[in-house]
Amino acid sequence: MAEHLSDEEQLDNFKRWFKENGLSTVVVVVLAAGGYFGWDFWKSYSEKTAQSASIIYQQMMDTAMVDPGESLNDSQKDQVSELAVQLKNDYSRTQYARYGAMLLARLAAEEGDLEVAAEQLEWALKGADEGLSLVIKLRLARIEVAQGNIDAGIEMLNVKDPKTMNSAYAEARGDFYLMKGDREAAHTAYLEALQSVAENDNQSRSIIELKLTYVAPASELVPDPTDASLGDS
To answer: Residue 111 domain-assigned?
Structure first.
């Protein structure tokens, strides 16, 4: 009988505990399960979204592919623009959408519409990952300079740590300073660009060296021993 009463007491205690705490416990368990399965669903959805976006992106890039020296025809521009807009509208959270906006910006710039180009790049900048945002900022700076705002373009590239874009940023600053007629500042910027260019990037290195020679102070220029005019002096 004592054991029977003990079971009843335990049951009463459990009912009382469940009445006081059971609902909140169930809610916590449901929320935890919901969070897990919700994340699992979101992960699956994100993977499918990225896959779909990558297919459209590849179609866009295939359409935009032309031989060196050639330009897209009107039909190609229309197709590329349509695919880029689709990426922006349907897959706006992906990096592929940012690439689409960047391509739209390039097309706008080629048409001379720098305002639209800047708008597309500003849109792409929002939500871009760190590496891509550095590329976008460089293009925005070039558009700023093309609009006549050279100082603003230089300021945009005066960042503390542009990481792998350090050489490209410094070279662009050199170009901008040269446009201002400040050859000394251009020389300093080109020198920084040369010092930070990737070792295996021979093409960029050659171009920077040419620019550096062009703005080099007279004291740094080495006379060409084969120059016949030297003997006349």
So the answer is: yes
Residues 120 and 157 in one domain: no
The answer to whether residues 105 and 170 belong to one domain is no
Residue for token digits 């939500």?
Answer: 127
Spatial distance between the Cα atoms of 121 and 141, rounded to a whole number of angstroms: 11
> Over the stretch 87-143, which tens digit does the pLDDT of each residue have?
999 999 999 999 999 999 999 999 999 999 999 999 999 999 999 999 999 999 999
Would you say residue 116 lies in a domain?
yes
Residue 112, domain extent: 49-62+73-128
Whether the CB-CB separation of 215 and 186 falls below 8 Å is answered with: yes
Stated pTM of the model: 0.74
Q: pLDDT category, 28, cuts 50, 70, 90?
A: very low
Count the domains in the chain.
Answer: 2
d(CA 98, CA 103) in angstroms, rounded, equals 9
Burial readout 19-54 (b: 16 or more C-beta within 10 A, e: otherwise): eeeeeeeeeeeeeeeeeeeeeeeeeeeeeeebeebe
Please determine, for residue 230, whether its predicted confidence score (pLDDT) is greater than 60.
Answer: no
Distance CA 146, CA 113 (A): 11
Contact 127, 93 (CB under 8 A): yes
Please write the tens of the pLDDT for every residue from 33-65: 444 444 343 344 466 788 999 999 999 999 999
**173 within a domain of the structure (yes/no):** yes
Looking up tokens 């020679």 gives 213
Q: Give the mean pLDDT of the chain.
A: 83
User: CATH number, domain at 169?
Assistant: 1.25.40
